[in-house]
Amino acid sequence: xxxxxxxxPEAQPEDxxxxxxxxxxxxxxVASLWSDALYDLRxxxxxxxxxxxxxxxxxxSIVPQWFTDGSPFDGGACDLANSLKRPDAEHWFGYDVxxxxxxxxxxxxxxxxxxxxxxxxxMVTVVGSLLGLLAGWKGGIIDSILSRFTEIFxxxxxxxxxxxxxxxxGEGNAVSVSVVMAVLGxxxxxxxxxxxxxxxxxxxxxxxxxxxxxxxxxxTFRHILPNAIAPVIVVAAISLGVYIGAEAALSYLGIGxxxxxxxxxxxxSDASVRFLNAPHVLLFPxxxxxxxxxxxxxxxxxxxxxLDPKLR
Length: 312
Known about the structure:
Strand content: under 5%
Low-confidence stretches: 1-11, 15-20
Structural class: mainly alpha
Mean pLDDT: 80
Number of strands: 0
Radius of gyration: 30 Å
Helix content: 55-70%
């Protein structure tokens, strides 16, 4: 008799699918220029520092009473008995030649300086972008006329033209200074937008939209503008600090914001002749102006690095 080998049932692999914890898959991030830029900006310390400073300065200009108890426009805010007194524990920045508290004037002076920068940037961006979009998209005679018209304004330096116009304008304020600088500053945005539109209007997505029957207006504002606006945003963010500095220069020369209004340029102008005797009068408004311009330039540089694919 031959031995019979009885085989037991084959071992079945254990099914651990019911007990194994399910792994959650992370949602995929949609890749686009704006989403990638936002992703980079949130991890850029330069952008975070600049954004915090800019936010603080904007809040300071809107509600200066949150940061100081007094107002330089109140009756009795200045006392000649305190003229050029040094900083102390109660008055951190000291007093100017009129006996006014420099800290209070520096806080309230932010309103005109930052208002001029933001208002000028908005006007320059809107006018330059629309005209550049029109010239780049339409081309032909419209492009030629707008380009020649732009070259006229490009031949006028910003500060020199601002000095000439403001001297004829008369009494200056934040709105008049902003209008003058916007009239002289829009050609830069025009050229950037025009070049960006020319680079984008023959791309495949534009051809596809045209083939599907999309109208000229839809193609312009739904396809061309969102893809052409990035370099304009970069230049506008950097230029904002430049316009704040230009306002300070015009006010320093006496043809910008006029008293009894307050701006950092006016404060620097009043303090410059007394720098040797009372350096604190010049130090604090100059430091405020420098920090503000630096904050906006930092913000603009970070946005440029995020939006320019060549820098990735």
